Fold:
Amino acid sequence: MNVGNWITKRGILSPNKTAIIFEDRQITYRDLNRRVNCLANALLDAGLKKGDRVGALLYNCPEFLEVYFALAKIGAIFVTLNFRLAGRELQYMIVNSGSSFLIFDEAFQETIDSIRSSLPIDTKGFVCLGEPTPGWAEDYEEFLNRGTYSEPDIQEEVNLEDPQMIMYTSGTTGIPKGALLSHKKTFYNTFNAVLYFDMTSKDVMLVVMPLFHSGGLNIAAVPVLYTGGTIVIQKSFDPKQTLSLIEKHRISLAMLVPTMLNFMLKQANIDEYNLSSMKTMMVGGEPIPLSLIKAYMDRDIPIRQVFGQTETSIQLWLSEEDAVRKIGSVGKPVFHADVRVVNKRGEDVLPGEVGEIVLKGPTQMICYWNDPEQTAETLKDGWLHTGDLATVDEEGFVYMVDREKDMYISGGENVYPAEIERVLGENPKILEVAVIGVPDEKWGEVGKALIVPKDGEKIAEEEIFDFLKGKLAKYKIPRHVEFTTEFPTTASGKIKKAELRDQYGHKKVGETIRDN
Structure:
């Protein structure tokens, strides 16, 4: 048994049921399984085998899930790639994962072409979805149609313990880490999602969060397909279109981040739409303010909150009954995971004490791909150490104190200052740099770059934005820039980020702001 078998089973049990709706397309479970099999067989014919890595650089679309399930059936490892990343960021992930095959949307062909010569992929390993297809790649539909409808004949059994995918998460070192996730992790995470969001075959799920994210893929899309429900895929978030899709398709479930909820409430005249079909709004990615919770609850739309990370998916959840009573909490542990908050001695903290969230169970990652040092630092005695600091109250509800070191969340995207600092450190005019997250009404948080220029150097703010363009994804580029003469440091010379947040964590008159 493996994750790919789910689509096989659904193709037998509910062949005529609509599995996916995307724009003007409706795909039944029978047709989805047939296309998955065609792709799986074409990949086998191309020489792929169990354990090989395949990168996917795609927008939200049905083909993303075709690739996902086809690779699961044959035991190849799916490498999800964030389409918002710059070329050199993608290059690192493709090379680091050792991907021998890449399936990409035609919108990214210029980016891929610019790094193609440095990738570990031969000339027959590039497949392009959409037109025009470059001469160095094969058309996706032509490639898929080389396969057959029959279930793939695999030489080596694929089971629950086998690796299924690599999802990259930026670390505090600024270097992305590839979390290696098993079929078993997907199984138990799916069970958690089904349990806590009451998913059934009658549900219609809106998938608007990026499928390369754990939230869009592992919490929204895959669990609903497991139950035999229907998913409605939105290519990218637009508040009016999102509300229109909910009304049109009688959507019952949606996985969103607070920024999306805020946009829908303030920019799209939400009360003009019939949202009575909504059973639950699943919300994660960042804390949600009480005013936003009440705004949706006043419209009879329950809010259920989830907390997790790429390495584990769902760890904690907060029900709609507790959303107001326990405002600020990230909830209690999910069913298929043991979650504790421990002190430095590994002991459970007392109510009100601060400790680190650790997790143990079938939903944790196998390791970080090709990174034994970071793996050993994160996985200790069977427990996954998240680096997130929290407290627990008398009822067992967990409250976040600080996120992993200096990470901040902008529009639902994790941003690690070390990665930005590393790139800015390449600028010959900069002596020192520190990036912090600051509050933002639109995105929740955005970055502020604090810069100490080298002696005698004058740097215009616009130079900073221009320097970062193309080197980092747009959402990572700081919106604020401020220059200073020195940073507070510890005795060992480390910059005191906490003091910087206290001193600079607000907008000053005359400060440069860039709306990327």
About this structure: The domain at 28-159 is CATH 3.40.50.980 (Rossmann fold). DSSP finds 15 helices and 28 strands in the chain. The first helix runs from residue 5 to 13.
